[in-house]
Write a structure and sequence with these properties.
This is Bacterial repeat domain-containing protein. By secondary structure, the chain is an all-beta fold. It is 0% helix and 51% strand. The N and C termini lie far apart (115 Å).
Length: 236
Amino acid sequence: MAVGSHNYYFEFYDSADDITIRLPSTGTYSGPDVSISTYTVTVTTSGLPSSTSTTAYADGINKGSISGGGTKTLTFDIGTTHSISVDTLFSGGTGVRYVCTNTSQSVSGADSLTFNYKTQYYFTVETEPSELDNPQGSGWYDSGTTATASVSAVGGYTFQYWTGDASGTGLSTTVTMNAPKTATAYYVKMQVGEINFKRYPSAMYNGQNTHVWFQVTNTGNVNGDFLVEVGNLSDG
C-alpha cells in the first residue's frame, strides 16, 4: 500500500512487519511513500550444540544453515503460504546423531518457529571371541535412557563377564546412554584334555539294575570347565 500527501487523519498498522503509520488530522504528510509487501519468519533451533548446524528449507528449497542456538530470518511476499522445515536427522560424529522432533510448519504471515532436536548415541553389543552368538541390544538410544545388552549360552564356551562400558556376570546388563557405548560379552572356550574313566563294577543284582560309579581323573592339565563325553566303557 502506498501512502502519499494527505490532509486527513489516517492510521495504518501492519502486524506482519510491526509498522504503524499515523498521519495528523490537520496538515500534510510529505514523507516517502511506504510500501508493505513482505513478511518475515524467524527460525530457531533448540537442543543443538553451538558447534553444530542444521539447514533451513522453505518449500523444500535450501535457505542456508542455522547454527545451534542461532536464528535464520526468511522473507516472503504477503499473501503467500510456505512450508518451513529443517534437517530431520544428521550426524554429530562417530556414534552421535541429532534427530528433529518437529515436522514441517506452515506459515502465511510473520511468525517465529522453533525446531527441537534430541541427541541420540549408538550402543554396540559384541562378543569376544567375535564369532560367537548373536548379541542383542545394538542400536540408537536417546540421551539419558537405559540400554540393555544380552547374549545367550553358547555350546563349548562358558560366559564369564561383560567388559567395555558394561559390567556384570549375568547374560544381560544395562548401561546409561550419555555417550556412545560398547558392551562386550567375554566367553572362555571349554578346554579339551585327556580324561581317564574307571567303572566300579556292580552290574546286576537279582536281575535289577544297580548304580554304576565312575571315577574321573584329569590327566590333561585341564583348567576350569571341561566337557565329559561317555562312550562305551568296560569293567576295569
